[in-house]
Amino acid sequence: MRACGWVGLLWLVGCASTGRFPVDPSVGQVRVEDVVVGLEWPWAVAFTPDGRALVTERTGALRWVTLDGGVGPALIGVPAVFAQGQGGLLDVVLAPDFATSREVFFTYAEPGPDGTAGTALGRGVVGESSLDEVRVLWRQTPKLAGGVHFGSRIVVARDGALFVTTGERNQRDLAQSLVHGQGKVLRLWRDGGVPADNPFVGRADALPEVFSFGHRNLQGAALHPDTGALWTHEHGPQGGDELNVTEAGKNYGWPLITYGREYSGGQVGEGRTEAPGLEQPKWRWVPSIAPSGLTFVTSEKY
Which of 76, 150, 187, 202 has the most CB atoms around its CB within 10 Å? Predict the structure, then answer.
């Protein structure tokens, strides 16, 4: 899926290139095929054990799709979403025991008073036509105005905890504030409880669910297949998109340091790219590539 105008799901196969992506012939060629069409701003896909997939549409629908092109009706029971700008119904992932529990976790821009919104984490039990037993596990407070920087990815860690990424809602200073959930990676149990070994548990000046901070707008997250470490990437401003190994208690710098610039062309803050106590990215993109999903490829095909 791409956020720049194609409507549907895209599948990459190892055949001849269509020319829609730059291809290096020395490493093989690809062909892009439409698998499912007719969706409106699809944002996330969760493949289920029966060979189907659940797809979120940013406009607020959660649907079953089949990989032969079938698109089901919107499931009833999905919470109302703030479907403006970058907001809406966002990520969806399966519980590890989905085959028996039918439980899913999802993130969305939750509407608030007077046109405000904030990222929220929900859970539910999915059926053929409805999402049942829906409960909000976590929500950003306060809700803020504007339609950008909601995050938001969910990753199930090896110990069963949930990592949830949030954007700073274009309120830059909140990324450095440990008493706010914006611009963070959070770590929660699947019932919404806080793990006792989270890095800021017991501190009066911090939310206990915070795992890492100093992030701008994280839209990619995945576990390393060997180490189990959490890798994330986030949007910089004009330039400075980052790939990070995201570790407990660490500060990833936004907006104090960045390799990006203001959209006006000026420097961000003091124009620093590094500072003591602030993490450097494992990789950075200048100019920006606007990264979305993140996964590790382990197949020997590639």
Answer: 150
- Cα torsion 58, 43, 239, 177: sign: positive
Which of 149, 180, 233, 235 is labelled catalytic? 149
- Beta-bridge mates of residue 234: 218, 242
User: Is 224 in the active site?
Assistant: no
The span from the CA of 53 to the CA of 65, in Å, is 5
User: What is d(CA 86, CA 88) in angstroms, rounded to the nearest whole number?
Assistant: 7
| Residue 59, Cβ density class (10 Å: 0-12 exposed, 13-18 middle, ≥19 buried) | middle
pLDDT by residue for the chain (302 residues), tens only, comes to 333 333 344 443 333 333 444 556 566 677 889 999 999 999 999 999 999 999 999 999 999 999 999 999 999 999 999 999 999 999 999 999 999 999 999 999 999 999 999 999 999 999 999 999 999 999 999 999 999 999 999 999 999 999 999 999 999 999 999 999 999 999 999 999 999 999 999 999 999 999 999 999 999 999 999 999 999 999 999 999 999 999 999 999 999 999 999 999 999 999 999 999 999 999 999 999 999 999 999 988 77
Amino acid at 186: L
pTM, two decimals, is 0.91
Q: How far is CA 162 from CA 43, 224, 276, 277, 287, in A?
A: 19, 15, 29, 26, 32
Q: Which long-range contacts (CB under 8 A, 24 or more apart) does 20-28 make?
A: none
Is the bond preceding residue 237 a cis peptide, omega within 30 degrees?
Answer: no
Residue 104 in 3-state DSSP? strand
